[in-house]
Amino acid sequence: MLNNKKLKNNNIVIMNFTGVYENQEFYQDLGAVWLELGDIQGTNCYCDEEAEAAIKERISLMEPSGIHFLDSGNYHYVSKIWLDKIEEEFELLVFDHHTDMQMPMFGNILSCGGWIQAALDTNTRLKRVYLAGPPSMEAEADRERVVGINEEELKTPGCISRHLKNSGLPLYISLDKDILTRSCAITNWDQGEAQLEDVLACIKEAASCRSIIGVDVCGENPDDQEQEGNRASQTNQNTNRKIICKLLEICDVLCP
Questions:
Q1: Does the global pTM surpass 0.85?
Q2: Between β-strands 33-36 and 66-69, what pairing exists: parallel, antiparallel or unpaired?
């Protein structure tokens, strides 16, 4: 178990599936690693076995610690692939407007809508999931291992530490920007009404009481040129910059 209650390292990985990050600059002065994944077939929303193997190969020399940007919410299942690289017992804190616990309609294929359930079913080191943001939880959710946190609770200081108090296990944090109001992020999914400052305060609070293994962020909008012009790209870039600066602050590193 990690002793210091900080992010283990501040390595930044940009996982480019759709090209959306080519129109953003939030990472360019931070020494980020650019990981090109757009050539892998079978990755949009669902990830078939060949695609999963290819992604695992691309990140095979990388540690799960650090900060990973995953592209749009269609690729949120990549969180599970990072989780599979963690070699100690841990818990997962997810900020998301959706539960991501829906099993796919066909087979056991990994999907953006079911990756949390898949992780619970297959990763024996994952002991509990704290799921913040969904307006409702599936009736079949594993109540022993899944703790729901209402979006409204996130406005209350101390809400995260109250939920995290019963275990000293390190955390991995996953943030889907679709939890945010559209003034903070414009995604290609339906969204919640959370404010960015509240979510960032919750992440800082989590880091004050637990060691953080790593963090990933998704919720870009690859369709923004067709639907929103440059508004989505600019809004998401500004929010990504605020997110990454807060995470670096946790590492005691100041943004330039």
A1: yes
A2: unpaired
